[in-house]
Design brief:
Helices cover 2% and strands 42% of the residues. The protein is mainly beta. Strands 16, 17, 18, 19, 20, 21, 22, 23, 24 and 25 form a 10-stranded antiparallel beta sheet that branches. Strands 1-15-14-13-12 form a 5-stranded antiparallel beta sheet. The chain has a 5-stranded antiparallel beta sheet with strand order 2-11-10-9-8, with no helix packed on it.
Amino acid sequence: MKRLFYIFISLIFITSTTACTQTLKKNDNSKVEVKSAFKVQKSDKYNFIDFNMIDNTYGWAIAKEGILKSKDGGVTWQNITPKGVNLIDSENISNKSFEEKSLFHAFVDKEIAFVGYREKNKIKIFKTLNGGEKWQETSLALENNWEKDTPKVNIDVINSKEAFIMITSSKISDNSDVELYKTEDLGSHWTRITKNVIASLNTKGDFCDIESITGIEFINRNMGWYTVKGEKIKYPFIYNTRDGGVTWEIQNLNVPKEYLNSKEYGINTFPPKFSKDNKQGYLPVEFNSKDKSSMIFYKTIDGGLTWNPSMPIETQGGIEIIYGVDKDGILWIVDGEGNKIYRIFYNDNNVNEITTEINLKGRKVQFLDKNTGLLVLDGILYKTKDKGITWEVVK
């Protein structure tokens, strides 16, 4: 919930390796009924942790009370946690911030949702295809031993059948630090494609030191990216696949003139966000040096085939990566101090700077259109109708 630069070096293509995949055995799927005892209640009856609004009407949320769904813009919520499953009170949440937890989710539309967590050396996944009326439990057995590690789990659901899961360590060091899986039948079978990811990480040249993977994003079953955090990087780049993760290659990014003089930066790239048609999108790249920290959001109008830098946003204290694209393709960014919101309309190079009355640092924030947004503050859901200037508790 969910976050705030370049001449190309010659395109470096990764020598593709033979796809090394292994199809795991069919998982046993068991239907799990949703809880029926919970009535629809107003938002102030829940302790929110994270949320995702599909549009101005429908939304999903994770609260201490369970998995929630709203049909009226967040005013009331129904607890639809699968019966007999207690995700929130487990070790997935307790004593951890939401970003550090092993609990993960993907709310695709008003009908499709995935919620899961790592349990020892497997991933338990609960999915619904009908808005939470029925849930199905599946599991993904991991090949590497993660029991002594605290890996980050990224899930990206493409449609009602296809999804990707990437498991990574906080630090990248060897082949045991990354696992990528895909399913084409909503979890009945999973295919492991790890060695191709490792090959791409190792084919980065001698111009950078990759520390960690920051996320994955697919716009369809073939086209996707993963992004990285690194030091001693001369030029920004991301990793791109056009065959569903079988092979990956480096996709370099143009460097604006003002950043060409520096010999090296700490450069972090983060997963792109796309409009509903998956054509227009933004890719955030953070440049860190001794003197300043800058964030440039690269734009695409061709589904990520090419990226061009937009106006940089600079700050002395760094920019916290809180960003998102609303239903109209408007980019929203929260600065590192949490007191400023930046709004960029897609066909406009000007940046609208907005001062907010509530500090948004570290908060889950989502804007739905050019004026309307929601945030979670101390477990309470707030709403703005004036582009983030003022906020009121949702009741």
